Amino acid sequence: xxxxxxxxxxxxxxxxxxxxxxHHAVAYLRVKAAALLKVAxxxxxxxxxxxxxxxxxxxxxIKDWIIRYQQDGLSGLKVQTGRGRKPVFSPSLRRRRPGGxxxxxxxxxxxxxxxxxxx
Length: 119
Prior knowledge:
Layout: H1 11-23, H2 27-40, H3 45-52, H4 59-72, H5 110-118
């Protein structure tokens, strides 16, 4: 049986994680802080992963959070730039037509036809 992951936190770290769990604007940081606090209180990583959070999380993910928190503190829990799905289409990369795009529609010729149809 593998050794149990233990997370020993100082009083200052507990305060920081508790504030993050209760008040931080970013939701995923609140979830990560809650998981770390539960592991620090003695719950097993597997138990926290299965039923300790709002949604189940892989236990290896929680172990990674612990390692990154121990190395980098709260900043280690933030999502790093370049992570996640890349955009498939970006309007800023769209090729522009010479002349500025579509020509403007002239609606004046439609006005008499609409007036006669309304009568």
